[in-house]
User: What shape does this take?
Amino acid sequence: MPKLINILLGEHQNIEKLLGVLEHELDIFDRGERPDYEVLQTIIQYFQDYPEKCHHPKEEMIFAKLMARDPVAARRFGDVEAEHETEASRLHGFAAAVQSILADQEFLREDVHSAMRAFIDHQREHLKKEEQLLFPAALKALLPDDWSAIDARLDDRKDPLFDAVVEEQFHDLQQTILRWEQEAEADRAALSRSPS
Assistant: This one.
């Protein structure tokens, strides 16, 4: 399997971790409690930064090569750039909802819930679609030279949240994710030890 596909699948797993954090914060919000707005803002900043500027361009390069090699398979997927624009629009709506709360503006709780839920759900649908349609079609249609050409054009920037060296603004978010993963692992271990 080309290295790039493994990188993208790893980034999808990381995005799923963030969607889990968002769901956790949305549950808190839905109970009428105060979610961690610093975490929400950091996740928004992350999505505005890394996926939009580094992750999506990789997928768009794959899609362009797929369109040249197998236009039927590419059309079956749809338009990856349009999907990424929709993601950016949903992210903007989610960010605006959080900003309205932090600015003490009037807002409907349902609108905030809808903006967050739409962002989470669309992200998951999009990841699934790429993994089930785009990546397999590209693996089937693209030639080694295509993968080499894509690799040559890639930005080698590291993920600011999930790389070994985490950028300072994402440090607290990474610690939150690690803590929740450890708690989930402890819960799973406790369940496996409990008598059925």
In short: Residues 3-191 form a domain with the Four Helix Bundle (Hemerythrin (Met), subunit A) fold (CATH 1.20.120). The chain has one domain: 3-191. The chain has seven helices and no strands.
